[in-house]
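All the exercises in this workshop are built on plain-text protein records. Sequence and backbone structure share a record, each on its own labelled line. The structure tokens are whole numbers drawn from a learned vocabulary of backbone shapes. The record below serves as our worked example for the rest of this section.
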Amino acid sequence: MIRVLHLPDSIEKRNGRMSVVMSIYRKLDRSKIQFDFACTDYGFENFEDEIKELGGNVYKIPSNENSFKNIKSMVNDLLRTGRYSFLHYHALSKWGCTLGMANKYHVKTIVHSHATELSDTLFKSIRNRIFSLNIFNNGDKLVAVSPEAGKKLFIFKKYTYIPNMINYKKYAFNKNNRLNIREKYGIEENDVLIGNVGRLSIQKNQEYAIKCLKHIKQSNFKLMFVGDADNNQQIKKIKDLVLSLGLDSKVIFTGMVTDVERYYSAFDIFWLPSLYEGMPTVGIEAQANGLYVLVSEAVSKNLDITGNVRFLEIKEDNIENWANLTESLVKTVKSHDVSAITKIENSEFNSKKVIEQWKKLYEV
């Protein structure tokens, strides 16, 4: 059996990287390939129970103890057991300091780029670039979720493009889900609901979405944020903006939910004004549901699988264009695209194709 030690930094359910890895893990023949995870425990809801049910192990370091010394010690102890064939590194973080250890134990390293920017601040970007320097000497295989993500991290090095995969049928439009979710949150039949799914964070740029909502002229538009915040300060900042613009009756915060697939059916259109992304799984999920997606130009053009994606600039002077295009699409698009699932099945995001690429990565 091939055993892989993954270094995703976090195994949180709200983490896009982990959603991708878990989608693959569930579909692999686990009698041939097994995953273990070494990670930082940040205290949020995570996939640990499911990983163990699937036959994997989770090794955690508390967030207040994740020093370079402790990380190196843990990974060294794991690699020296001889159980692992591959060390698979996903997030630019302190965990990258362990890549150089793999060769000592005859373990191959895989470096996976998931984002088109190194971070959302200059300081963190510089720090993460430093964290990434050793991948050029210690990465046996380089992988990216999109061409943009590959070029950003690997620069001049050759890499393999493997698109993200989701269980897209799980996100298909469901009329009962639409009625139930809208009733739960008091969304009237004639209300137009704009959806946004993901962490409330600087990267996801929810403040821009709120400003765009303010510019929508029709009174029956509402905006729903599905997800929790990186910290209390971030959620307060976003909610303060809602209040200052007088939108408190039009913006809904659901917090973290465990049945996010049901929420897409309640939406009429999907917004993704992120400052950067690699290949956002929520954008694929929204398309699988048949929704039109308005997305930042910072996101990979490969996201448009169904022909229902529109890319827009996220500059302050383009806010009105987001509002106008949203109103225009809602007028012309009368229902969810029922052919969306078929379009995804016929694309490079097809589950079987992506699984075969991952198996090839592990030389199975």
Summary: Residues 168-345 form a domain with the Rossmann fold fold (CATH 3.40.50.2000). The longest helix spans residues 319-332.
